[in-house]
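hey so u asked for the seq, here:
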Amino acid sequence: MGEMRHMTKADLIEEVSKLAELTRKDSEVIVETIFDSVVRSLRVGDKIEIRGFGSFRTRQRKPRIGRNPKTGDRVEVPAKKIPFFKPSKELKDLINSEAAGVPVAPAPPAN
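ran it, structure tokens below
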């Protein structure tokens, strides 16, 4: 198997810029706006559903007693919201279709 790659926000902006034939600045505004919208919605407790991709929501984690790993002391860990992504069936099928021998559209060439 090849080396695992990871896509950064800059890579995503570059991809939007190329595919949509937009300036890098316009692409950056689009990507940042999408991310900011997701964060704002999650912050107020809304669920974001993107058909064919998946849904983002928060789960409430209850307060609990934890331990300080350095000292072993018991510490109270407050309740908090945890972001959670649930992929759609279509997304799961898409990422597994190559392994099943179904052709997948090739990624644009890296320059």
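The mean pLDDT is 89. The longest helix spans residues 24-43.
lmk if thats what u needed
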